[in-house]
Amino acid sequence: MSGIYEQAKKTMDEVRQNADLTIGKLLVVGCSTSTVHGEYPGADSSEDVAEELYRALTEVFGAEFDIAVQCCEHLNRALVVERAVAERYGFTMVNAVPHRKAGGAFATKHYHSLREPVVVEDIRSMATVGIDIGGVMIGMHMRPVVVPIKLENNRIDEAIVIAGRSRLKYIGGERTQYF
Fold first, then answer.
1. At a CB cut-off of 8 Å and minimum separation 6, what does 85 contact?
2. Rounded to whole angstroms, what are the CA distances from 35 to 14, 97, 104, 109, 157?
3. What pTM does this model have?
4. Which CATH class is domain 2-166?
């Protein structure tokens, strides 16, 4: 199990190094713990895998980023955040508590690790950094324009990891100057 933690830590360090903090610090994470150990998403949600991944996530991003963790499709891909984050961004809270079979082990771990956890319907495409562990499709939560982060460490055990960061939109025409 410690191999999962080590792989996750390397991957998340790499994502953190490529994040553009000038745009914001809202991180969205989607994770299929089933996929990490080689199963189809939702087939065998694992609390042990969630624990290892979550430890890496909070060590790398915990103090500086607002973290939103996407629930599985059984909760319509709602997200778990700290109540203060929901209030600061004006996210719509919903009445749900994730668990291993509806929400997934990783979202459940996040929920039970927060001081005042809430589930929000969506984060209105405001995430500035995203990590997708196992192909759970977090793109809907990312702020345009998303730039893929090419990861050297793009696997955690059996799961493929895809990450992205947002950049500001280029507007204007040929006379526009950009910084």
1. 26, 66, 68, 91
2. 21, 22, 12, 17, 9
3. 0.94
4. alpha beta
